[in-house]
């Protein structure tokens, strides 16, 4: 709640003027934290290199209201769907050694293609506007994104902006303070917390609404997913090189899809729980190289939450970061442009100010 914090800030300055006491009571520590948080917000806004987008900047003034947690309401449709997909994927693991070599290559191709639809598309382009893309690239990314079956971009980007702005509060859709299972997959299996609905609804999503391609995907999402995530990946190996229907369905569709899902979810779970915080020790997001490896470069998460406007989601470019390599290739042929990169001096200043001391230069 921003207002009480601002009021407290004023009264704390008045009291520190009239007192020389050096004892830090819990209340005065709260006030000090409040001042630090406001300073952080101001610095974030100064550092930001995208004048047109502020909805993914952490708002440290927002805090959870005190009170009992609302009762969990299960969404049985999602629970059953996820359980069936995971069972199909487990069966796919047992079939995988018997697949033809072309089927393996097809799985890898679909994994990378749909992965880019999330990382280069829903995340770096549409959630954070870290670069601009011309129509052919946006078309490629929206088709790839549909294959990933992680909801349409409009909703994905709204959730990601809320995750950044209200991180680790109840308004964060996958609040990591609610434990590994919740932030990994549990958040998709229950109704959203009222704070997510309230604060998510207050975000400015006008840039997404104005993009016809995104509204088209939203409108025709169900049949498009059926085609791109289920029918096409199954039919190609079966029809083109005579793979069995069972192998095609369970490996190229169920196993591939569940792998993409779990890898993406690891960014919300593992990269918020395990790893160093060289850029900002005050947030839970962490640097996790293993997550970067599986997600085409999305595991540099302490950096990403500190500088959400950097197109590389990392201080570096191609190191464990296939998505940045892809965007750079697109830029080389003129399909991506206006790539935002945080200057080294700003990064080093931030490390000095808020890092956990784990940063290794060079
Ligand atoms: Zn993000
Ligand atoms: Zn995060």
Structure description:
It is a single chain. By secondary structure, the chain is an all-alpha fold. The chain has one domain (70-354). The protein has helices spanning 2-17, 26-47, 76-95, 101-127, 135-148, 153-165, 180-184, 194-201, 206-209, 212-219, 221-240, 245-268, 270-273, 289-294, 301-306, 322-332, 344-354; strands at 132-133, 336-337. It has a two-stranded antiparallel ribbon. Helix 4 (101-127) packs across helix 5, helix 4 (101-127) packs parallel to helix 12 (245-268) and helix 11 packs across helix 12 (245-268). The longest helix is centred in the first third of the chain and has 27 residues, at 101-127. The structure holds zinc ion (ZN) (2 copies).
Largest sheet: 2 strands, antiparallel
Count the DSSP helices: 17
What string, H for helix and E for strand, traces the elements in order? Answer: HHHHEHHHHHHHHHHHHEH
β-strand number: 2
Described by the principal axes of the CA atoms, the overall outline is globular
Order of adjacent strands in the largest pleated sheet:
1-2
Portion in beta strands: under 5%
Radius of gyration from CA coordinates: 22 Å
Average residue-wise pLDDT: 88
Helix content: 55-70%
Distance separating the two termini: 41 Å
SSE class: mainly alpha
What small molecules does the structure contain? zinc ion
Tell me the domain tally.
1
Identify low-pLDDT runs: 1-29
Keywords: Endoplasmic reticulum, Fatty acid biosynthesis, Fatty acid metabolism, Iron, Lipid biosynthesis, Lipid metabolism, Membrane, Metal-binding, Oxidoreductase, Transmembrane, Transmembrane helix
GO molecular function: iron ion binding; palmitoyl-CoA 9-desaturase activity; stearoyl-CoA 9-desaturase activity
Subcellular location: Endoplasmic reticulum membrane
Organism: Dipodomys ordii (Ord's kangaroo rat)
């Amino acid at each position: 709640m921003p207002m009480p914090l601002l009021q407290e800030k004023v009264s704390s300055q008045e009291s520190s003027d009239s007192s020389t006491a050096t004892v830090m009571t819990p209340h005065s520590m709260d006030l000090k934290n409040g001042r630090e948080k406001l300073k952080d917000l101001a610095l974030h806004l100064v550092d930001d290199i995208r004048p047109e987008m502020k909805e993914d900047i952490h708002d440290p003034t927002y805090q959870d209201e005190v009170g009992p947690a609302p009762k969990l309401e299960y969404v049985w449709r999602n629970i059953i769907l996820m359980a069936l997909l995971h069972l199909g994927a487990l069966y796919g693991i047992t079939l995988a050694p018997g697949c033809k070599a072309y089927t393996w290559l097809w799985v890898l191709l679909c994994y990378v293609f749909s992965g880019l639809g999330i990382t280069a598309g829903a995340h770096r382009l549409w959630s954070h506007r870290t670069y601009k893309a011309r129509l052919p690239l946006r078309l490629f990314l929206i088709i790839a994104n549909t294959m990933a079956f992680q909801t349409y971009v409009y909703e994905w980007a709204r959730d990601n902006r809320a995750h950044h702005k209200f991180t680790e509060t109840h308004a964060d859709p996958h609040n990591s303070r609610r434990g590994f299972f919740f932030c990994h997959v549990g958040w998709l299996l229950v109704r959203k917390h009222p704070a997510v609905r309230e604060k998510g609804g207050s975000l400015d999503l006008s840039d997404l609404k104005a993009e016809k391609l995104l509204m088209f995907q939203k409108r025709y999402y169900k049949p498009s997913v059926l085609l791109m995530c289920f029918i096409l990946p199954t039919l190609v190996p079966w029809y083109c090189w005579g793979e069995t229907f069972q192998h095609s369905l369970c490996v190229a569709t169920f196993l591939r899809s569940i792998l993409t899902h779990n890898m993406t979810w690891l960014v919300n779970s593992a990269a918020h729980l395990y790893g160093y915080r060289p850029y900002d020790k005050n947030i839970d997001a962490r640097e996790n190289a293993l997550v970067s490896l599986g997600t085409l470069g999305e595991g540099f998460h302490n950096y990403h939450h500190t500088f959400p406007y950097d197109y590389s989601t990392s201080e570096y470019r191609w190191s464990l970061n296939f998505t940045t390599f892809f965007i750079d290739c697109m830029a080389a042929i003129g399909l991506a442009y206006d790539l935002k990169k945080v200057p080294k001096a700003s990064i080093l200043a931030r490390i000095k100010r808020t890092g956990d001391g784990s940063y290794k230069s060079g």
